[in-house]
From TrEMBL:
The protein's name in its UniProt record: HTH lysR-type domain-containing protein
Keyword Thylakoid: no
Organism annotation: Vibrio scophthalmi
Stored Gene3D superfamilies: Periplasmic binding protein-like II, Winged helix-like DNA-binding domain superfamily/Winged helix DNA-binding domain
PANTHER family: HTH-TYPE TRANSCRIPTIONAL REGULATOR LEUO-RELATED (PTHR30118), LYSR FAMILY TRANSCRIPTIONAL REGULATOR (PTHR30118:SF14)
Keyword terms: DNA-binding, Transcription, Transcription regulation
PROSITE patterns per UniProt: HTH_LYSR (PS50931)
Keyword hit for Cytoplasm: no
Similarity comment: family membership: Belongs to the LysR transcriptional regulatory family.
Residue ranges constituting the HTH lysR-type domain according to the UniProt record: 5-62
Pfam families for this protein: HTH_1, LysR_substrate
Family matches, as InterPro entries: LysR-type_TF, LysR_HTH_N, LysR_subst-bd, WH-like_DNA-bd_sf, WH_DNA-bd_sf
Length: 294
């Protein structure tokens, strides 16, 4: 006798013991008599016992049912007592896995970590680079979170919850000759490249191309600190968020179009959408990002 038994089958057994009639059990559980009979037939094979014997006044339970009824009722009582436990980050000891792109970690990683650490001093916080492998793990159900910009290519199984909107801008060194976007396109463009994010396409550049600005990356670099150094020491230009222009650099604004704004989101598996830990992570990140981007 194996143990592959679902809770609904146990409900049927206990109800059958109480009512001794297939139709009454079916009515009580909102099923057809045929469905109840099929469940009972499978249970007879499972327990290798008739379970109930047809008598003059209905079905009578076998000795097996009399002996094990208390165990079955205990299983149901235990199942019914299962409920969500109260969540407290102060007592959280498990690992918190966070993914993000280089631009996100370089600008927000330290502030976000310190805010999370203050709330959850016992937790291990792992802040990792987003990648194709990480994408696969998240889609397959890994209990992790991705901080990124809205990604239309992510499957519906991933929930993308909006945190804030930011305005992207190009930036150059303070002494750069270019003053406008039109002048800037004559100079080399260095851009962040992150596997699983913009290694195939650049949504921002596609939007610019749609309104007549052809911007082609000259060099792709994963490390944003290296990009900032390249920009500060040459006539290259790059892009960042308008409130996060590096030191000794200045911004060159993009066209003021509504779809140029970038939506920052927190992404995680829909199976975890009611997880209180995710709500805490969202609220903390929302507070940190909105303080820095105001």
């Amino acid at each position: 006798m194996g143990h592959n038994l679902d809770i609904q089958s146990i409900y049927v057994l206990v109800k059958m013991y109480e009512l001794r009639n297939v139709k009454l059990v079916a009515d009580a559980l909102g099923k057809t008599s045929s469905a109840i009979s099929k469940i009972l037939s499978k249970l007879k094979l499972h327990f290798e016992d008739p379970l109930f014997i047809q008598g003059r006044h209905g079905f009578e339970p076998t000795t097996f049912m009399d002996t094990n009824l208390a165990h079955l009722e205990h299983i149901l009582a235990t199942f019914d007592s299962i409920q969500h436990t109260e969540f407290s980050p102060q007592t959280l000891k498990q690992e918190i896995i966070l993914y993000g792109h280089a631009l996100f970690w370089d600008n927000f990683g330290d502030k976000l970590y310190l805010a999370l650490r203050k709330d959850a001093p016992l937790a291990k916080i792992s802040m990792r680079q987003w990648s194709l492998e990480a994408r696969s793990r998240l889609v397959e159900g890994e209990n992790s979170v991705l901080f990124n910009t809205y990604d239309e290519t992510l499957p519906q199984v991933i929930l993308q919850k909006s945190i804030c909107e930011v305005s992207p801008t190009f930036y150059v060194r303070n002494g750069h000759p270019a003053q406008t976007l039109e002048e800037l396109t004559d100079y080399p463009f260095v851009i962040t490249r992150n596997p699983g994010w913009n290694d195939v396409r650049y949504p921002l550049l596609e939007r610019l191309a749609a309104i007549g600005y052809q911007v082609t990356p000259t060099v792709e670099v994963e490390n944003t600190l290296a990009i900032e150094n390249i920009v500060r020491n040459s006539d290259h230009y790059s892009f960042t968020m308008s409130r996060l222009i590096p030191e000794n650099c200045r911004g060159i604004a993009l066209p003021k179009l509504s779809d140029m704004r970038v939506k920052c989101v927190m992404s995680y598996h829909r199976a975890k959408q009611n997880d209180p830990q995710k709500e805490w992570l969202y609220n903390t990140c929302h507070r940190v990002l909105n303080q820095l981007t105001e």
